Automatic annotation (TrEMBL):
One of its GO terms (molecular function) is phosphoglycolate phosphatase activity. GO terms for cellular component: cytosol. It comes from the Bacteria. This is Pyrophosphatase PpaX. One of its GO terms (biological process) is DNA repair. It holds the Pfam family HAD_2.
Length: 214
């Protein structure tokens, strides 16, 4: 029985795919005059921003991060939405006093902004941003830090995410994982590291926890 829940943010709770794609497209056009294809962006989805930018141009990575963040901040609210059914399930879990935290590779500033924009912050006990750990996912550091904050037993902790990075981090932290069915990644990205659970919709999480439907 799971008593503690750790969630990824982008692609799991929030549909940020469009704002991420557009921010990359704008940034790479401005700095490199490069019309990047979305499939190329998808290959680095979920990784820390600076690391992503170094793939394209290490010397310009810092400036590119700044351009990306400026565009993202300006357009994020209009191009982001909460995935269907997620908020209702989070409210139901909160009603049952399930301790929950966010473990994301997104910077704390932008993760907090998103949680407040969509009134999601009351559901979570803490947020760990990618800039608050030395090693971002797939390293298990953030998950281990989250479990310490919750005083959680690994056997009673479940990581819910959308990417191979989430599954890898959970496995390395010694906890079970649940993959959301609305993830954007091709199925072959999960070969060799399948999740312990698969959520077709967020209400499936309640069944895993043996809770009544929301």
């Amino acid at each position: 029985m799971f008593r503690y829940l750790l969630f990824d943010l982008d692609g799991t709770i929030l549909d940020t795919n469009e704002i991420i794609f557009r921010s990359f497209e704008y940034t790479l056009k401005v700095h490199l005059d490069y019309d990047i294809q979305r499939q190329e962006i998808l290959k680095i989805f979920g990784e820390p921003l600076f690391k992503q930018m170094t793939y394209f141009n290490p010397k310009l990575a810092k400036a590119m991060c700044q351009t990306y963040r400026e565009y993202y901040a300006k357009h994020s609210k209009e191009l982001t939405r909460v995935f269907p059914g997620v908020k209702k399930v989070l409210a139901h879990l909160k009603l049952h006093n399930i301790p929950m935290g966010i473990v994301t590779n997104k910077s704390r500033k932008f993760a907090e902004m998103a949680l407040h924009d969509f009134q999601l912050h009351p559901f979570f006990d803490f947020l760990i941003g990618g800039d608050e750990v030395k090693n971002a996912k797939p390293d298990p550091e953030a998950i281990i830090k989250g479990m310490k904050l919750l005083k959680a037993n690994p056997k009673e902790t479940l990581m819910i995410g959308d990417s191979p990075l989430d599954l890898d981090a959970a496995k390395r932290a010694g906890i079970k994982s649940a993959l959301v069915g609305w993830n954007i990644f091709p199925k072959e990205r999960f070969i060799g590291n399948p999740p312990d659970f698969y959520l077709v919709q967020m209400t499936d999480l309640l069944q895993i926890l043996n809770l009544d439907a929301a």
